[in-house]
Amino acid sequence: MNLGALSLENAPGFWTPVRFFLTAPVFGMLAAGLIFVDGGQLLQSRWLPGSLAVAHAFTLGYIAMAMLGALFQMLPVLMGAVFPQAARAAMIVHLLMTLGTLCLVFAFLVQRPLLFAAAVVLLAPVLILFGAGVLVAIFRTGKVSTTARAVQLAALGLIVTVMLGGYMALGHAFGTAPINNVLTNYHAAWGVIGWILILAVGVSEQVIPMFLTTPPYPGLFNKRLAYLLMLLLVAGSLLPLRGLELAAVVLAGCLMLAYAVVTLQLLGKRRRKRFDITNAYWQVGMLCLVPGAGTNVYSYFGGAMGGADLALLSGLLLLVGFAVSIINGMLYKIVPFLVWLNLRMPAVMGKLKPGTRYYTPNIHEVINVRPMQVQLMFHVAGLLLLVAAVFFQGLTVYAAATAVLVSNLLLLLNLAHAVRLYRKYSSRAIAVR
Amino acid sequence: MAAISEFFSTQHRACDRVFEKMEEAVSRDDWPQAESLYKELSRDTLQHFSNEEEGLFPLFEETTGMQAGPTQVMRGEHVELRELLQRIGDAVQARDRDEALGTAETFFLFLQQHNVKEEQVLYPMADQVLQGVLPELSDKVPGFTPSGE
């Protein structure tokens, strides 16, 4: 147990996580822009260069970006692991992630070997090192919570995902390997299940009961879920048996379903009945996880639905529907709190002269509820339109892209509002209220 | 669960329930109810803080020799929580719904991260190191019994 980690003084500075959080919606806007420019074509197949570009704008630029930012914040505070040189490391990781993701997205679009090589150089070492760092840091703390264990497994998931992706990108760069469907599927499975889903399972165990005032998850549910998902991934990837892979796909689908249903039930039992934006986003995410898991299994068995690419639909539901939704919701919980906490730090740390008081905006003032609700509406509209566009293409695609663009722009503006308040109040001399 | 974790964590949960009811009353604009629940919340929370600051923490500091350790951090956070509690009280008094709910949310989030640290780190440690001096603790903390019952 690391007592030093108890202290908020060891929490990383304001900008350490926030730079990641502000970047995520920018990549969301980039993804929307790409969908718009590429029009109808894009949503017809997951194998089109444009689809791969959009997918990576979301997975690396939005999802991993936000998740890394959150991990920089979470590790020291909640897990008793101090991140050495967190501020400097975050700056470098953020820079490499941003540049690397841009390279990869444009590498897919213009198919230039040099861009693929640059993407690998910029992304692979930093992500693998980050994953390894998290793995080791949590090992060192000894006995750990379910959340910490899940984060550790997710770090392993991240490493495998990046290695598979990096290997394929090098194939593009040097023309040695053509697109390999089998490897791509493993890469996607490790990314979605091993990295994103397992992290969500771990984080939700702690965050949902605590911040959304629900009953706790049943007993060892999340712990078993995280281990089982990892076990299925490893077994399905390493043992070359068709039957086993089949079973792994079905079982993983069932586990996702169980996770979604249990979480929705918990959210339905919130003790605080007031509207909570984070709660709404978790509900949207879980409601997408159900059909996302379903279509994945269905398409694996060759199921069809009106000529649509069901694997692409499943990816859309799992990435934009599930992952982006819960991250968006968490950002609305984390960022206002960080603004407030960092503004109150002198008081909390006992650095004020006794009796000194100064005004700090409350959390609802940092980001108002109304603009968050408007953004949620655009997010949900974007999701529904994206799903519709997989089937209908045509004008629906443009409507979908516009809604996603507006949703991410509004998210960026809402977060920027919070950051402006932080700047305003932190630079202002302490005023007695 | 060991005696200290059990007793102090239960107080956290009890305060949470009163808080939730008070917030609910404020959202309904039921101000008389909100005021009475606020009084209950304030009394219970401050009692819990003093149980820690005058009972648990000094004993922990004495036994472990850690004066500037985790208890110091927790005391600092209590100061801020008292301030927020006061601000909620002022807002309820003034029947300022937005300020009351916004400050309540702020109080709640800060309180939850505070409670997690106590429940996951401090109380389990206290349960280990204070095993021999539990009767002393029950002298200082009303309602606490060494057997955990």
Structure summary:
The complex is a heterodimer of chains A (433) and B (149). Chain A contains 13 helices and no strands. Chain A is mainly α and 433 residues long.
SSE topology:
The complex is a heterodimer of chains A (433) and B (149).
Chain A: H1 15-38, H2 49-79, H3 86-110, H4 113-140, H5 146-174, H6 181-211, H7 221-238, H8 242-268, H9 277-300, H10 310-348, H11 363-366, H12 369-392, H13 395-427
Helix pairs in contact in A: 1-2, 1-3, 1-13, 2-3, 2-10, 3-4, 4-5, 5-6, 5-7, 6-7, 6-8, 6-10, 7-8, 8-9, 9-10, 9-12, 10-12, 10-13, 12-13
Chain B: H1 3-27, H2 31-64, H3 70-93, H4 97-129, H5 134-140
3D architecture notes:
The complex is a heterodimer of chains A (433) and B (149). Helices cover 78% and strands 0% of the residues of chain A. With 433 residues, chain A is mostly helical. Chain A has one domain (3-341, 356-422): Cytochrome c oxidase-like, subunit I domain (Cytochrome C Oxidase, Chain A, Up-down Bundle), CATH 1.20.210. In chain A, helix 10 runs antiparallel to helix 12. Chain A is globular, with a radius of gyration of 21 Å. By secondary structure, chain B is mainly α. Chain B has one domain: Four Helix Bundle (Hemerythrin (Met), subunit A), CATH 1.20.120. Chain B is 83% helix and 0% strand. Chain B has helices spanning 3-27, 31-64, 70-93, 97-129, 134-140. In chain B, helix 1 packs antiparallel against helix 4 (97-129), helix 2 runs antiparallel to helix 3 (70-93) and helix 3 runs antiparallel to helix 4. Chain B starts with a helix and ends in a 9-residue tail after the last helix. The chains are: A mainly alpha (433), B mainly alpha (149). At the A-B interface, helix 6, helix 10 and helix 11 of A face helix 1, helix 3 and helix 4 of B.
